[in-house]
């Protein structure tokens, strides 16, 4: 669900900003915020997960993603550019915390000698989640464009759907553990 949420929100944002009249170069520049943020926060998030525990940090990151996802759905209604930038920055913190802890957790649970298999499973999850996220974002945007009065509300509804799936996933994992 993390990768579904990550790429789904990115695809939805690109279409949203295009509908707002932003140029492809402006959209691409804004979309660089999250990779840059992961680059800057990744090592810190990994050290924090090592210190506080992978389960705890992965759940904290997931909960932050849900809260930031709701904010990200609503902030661009206030202002398309600054709301999107602030939403992306909030998402980036949750993404850094979740991804570092989740990757470490998956690899730590692999039996000795099977770490490569666990790493491959993470790669499959990433590819599958990204494919499903982009398809779900595109399909839900098309649906919400047809039933809601404007593209801003369609964007917000799409992000709330993606965030709801991420939240449900976090709740199910928490309920299980």
Brief characterization of the structure:
With 177 residues, the protein is mainly α. It has seven helices and no strands.
Report on the structure:
- The protein is mostly helical and 177 residues long.
- It has seven helices and no strands.
- Helices cover 90% and strands 0% of the residues.
- The chain starts with a helix and ends with a helix.
- It has a single domain, classed as Up-down Bundle (Growth Hormone, Chain: A).
Rounded to an integer in angstroms, the radius of gyration calculated over CA atoms is 16 Å
Tell me the strand percentage band.
under 5%
Ranges where pLDDT stays below 50 over 5 or more residues in a row are: none
Structural class assignment: mainly alpha
* General shape: globular
Oligomer: single chain
- Overall mean pLDDT score? 91
CATH architecture group name: Up-down Bundle
| CATH-defined fold name | Growth Hormone, Chain: A
**Could you give a short account of the major beta sheet?**
none
Number of helices: 7
Produce the secondary structure layout.
Elements: H1 2-19, H2 24-31, H3 33-52, H4 54-78, H5 80-109, H6 115-147, H7 151-176
Helix pairs in contact: 1-2, 1-5, 1-6, 1-7, 3-4, 3-5, 4-5, 4-7, 5-6, 6-7
List the defining traits of the structure above.
mainly alpha; 7 helices; Growth Hormone, Chain: A; 90% helix; 177 residues; 0% strand
